[in-house]
């Protein structure tokens, strides 16, 4: 049995005819010890999907209109408050993008880590355990650093404290929502190394949310690419990066300059990400797609398994793309 | 002759403390930086946060007062100019900012934002000419001229950045300082803005000083690249040289730290220990030596000077 199974998740904001569907039929599974990357641009629903695993999206305004989220076989969407408290930070821990905004500025970081311990492993809520956790995430001189306030630490160190706090409860699943976006590249490399190392040492599952395809190649076993509230491609990481099948995945990869590639012109994706109020009919990517045909505007394509383990939401995935698509703006 | 020449530019900020606000230290945000930008050339400036790249960009166009050094623009020293003389020169150089949400006045229409510069420099006569020029500029950056009556909040991030670029273009500048112009944008929109900047350069012969932390973007757009660390230039070369044959250990680490999409490439990654030190109390000798994987005894004492290690390739390292 997989650790996490999301089945056809549907999430709306608001009610009635003006309700906006932020997540539209997302299904994915995560096995124990596996790393899955959720890739997409802002507003595609990747963060809301990840927050839903511990039901952290405030409702109202959010409403779960369908689907289930099975965590260790139990549906999170039907849990009562006490059960939810048990899994939040217990089975699932979160690390967010902006460490300086996630830490409480008026408490010492050691105190904040101890708070997490008190909640989930009260017998271990002692200074020694805090020191062990800080050492685990590679903070030098942890006995001194635990007495620091968040503002006394750099961004990279703050993110390590956040990870230490997330690990305090020995979670089965670590959800990292853009954990390195606010950090410099050299610090980003340190944090990615740390996550990779922790994954093998603690045998956790990691759900990593990112918009950077380079990080996918570094860390992920499998990748789910999201666009406008739907998964458009789900595949083992190496296969996806070597041979993307969905036109959006391919366009996304082509629009990023590659280091060492020189000054060849970028192929931009024309237009913008559609807003939730004005979702195009049919395939949600068709207005920006180089492969689009008239029928794409009529029929909503399903996510189909085209090769073992590779799922694509495009019926024309075998068709070659036009050699070059121009930016229209 | 270069369009812009910066010579030994320094920007030091005083750090005040105590009841009498005594100056007890200086942050050397920019320290002895020398660079030049040619006509219609793009020079990239990379470095991590806090290395002084934004301050350098701002000091060049005098949004921040330089402490010492000279900024020669078309042969004229900008640091000596005052008042209206400076204002009239400002037509020649413009800036595009990082945050497309914070850099446009939410109470002004797009047309007013773009035309403000036209009015200040008295570049158009009468309302019809003004309107026509705004429409022309909007078209140049790929927006609908009919959008001049709208407010910034009605546009997406990428479209706002286009408005910022149109505002910079209004006065027909020769140089645009682009401070992280694409880092706040979605990946799919980044490429549109980069392509737009390149097209505008081709059509209008504008030079760019392109400040960014993303090496791949900088390599893509720049002819020459400058690498900054703790307020100093540590390496400069053409883009190919920096990416394929970096000489300074910091540049080498920076390049190796960029995650690559291709899973087949098995690059050796240099992970630097620690963080960037504080510029208030920079390390002795080479500012990079505490994190440097190849540092020697003399790196702790002697400050390395920028020297030409191969033709056109400069590095500030004893061992390069």
Topology at a glance:
The complex is a heterodimer of chains A (329) and B (320).
Chain A: E1 4-13, E2 20-30, E3 35-39, H1 46-52, E4 62-71, E5 74-75, H2 81-87, E6 92-95, H3 99-102, H4 109-120, H5 127-136, H6 142-145, H7 155-167, E7 173-177, H8 185-202, E8 205-210, H9 213-219, E9 222-227, E10 230-236, H10 237-242, H11 247-255, E11 304-307, E12 310-312
Parallel strand pairs in A: 3-8, 3-9, 6-7, 7-8
Antiparallel strand pairs in A: 1-2, 1-4, 4-5, 9-10, 10-12, 11-12
Helix pairs in contact in A: 4-5, 4-7, 5-7
Chain B: E1 4-17, E2 22-37, E3 42-46, H1 53-60, E4 68-73, E5 76-77, H2 83-89, E6 93-96, H3 110-120, H4 126-140, H5 157-169, E7 175-179, H6 187-204, E8 207-212, H7 215-221, E9 224-229, E10 232-238, H8 239-244, H9 249-257, E11 307-310, E12 313-315
Parallel strand pairs in B: 3-8, 3-9, 6-7, 7-8
Antiparallel strand pairs in B: 1-2, 1-4, 4-5, 9-10, 10-12, 11-12
Helix pairs in contact in B: 3-4, 3-5, 5-6
What does this structure look like?
The complex is a heterodimer of chains A (about 325) and B (about 325). Chain A is α/β, with parallel strands linked by helices and about 325 residues long. Chain A has two domains: about 5-80 and about 175-190 and about 205-260 and about 265-329, Rossmann fold; about 90-170. Chain A has eleven helices and twelve strands. Chain A has an eight-stranded mixed sheet with strand order 6-7-8-3-9-10-12-11, with helices on both faces. Residues about 325-329 of chain A have low confidence and may be disordered. With about 325 residues, chain B is an alpha/beta fold. Helix content of chain B is about 30%, strand content about 25%. Chain B is built from nine helices and twelve strands. Chain B has helices spanning about 55-60, 85-90, 110-120, 125-140, 155-170, 185-205, 215-220, 240-245, 250-255; strands at about 5-15, 20-35, 40-45, 70-75, 75, 95, 175-180, 205-210, 225-230, 230-240, 305-310, 315. An eight-stranded mixed sheet of chain B has the order 6-7-8-3-9-10-12-11, with helices on both faces. In chain B, helix 3 packs across helix 4 and helix 5 runs parallel beside helix 6. Chain B starts with a strand and ends in a 5-residue tail after the last strand. Chains A and B meet through helix 8, helix 9, helix 10 and helix 11 of A and helix 5, helix 6, helix 7, helix 8 and helix 9 of B.
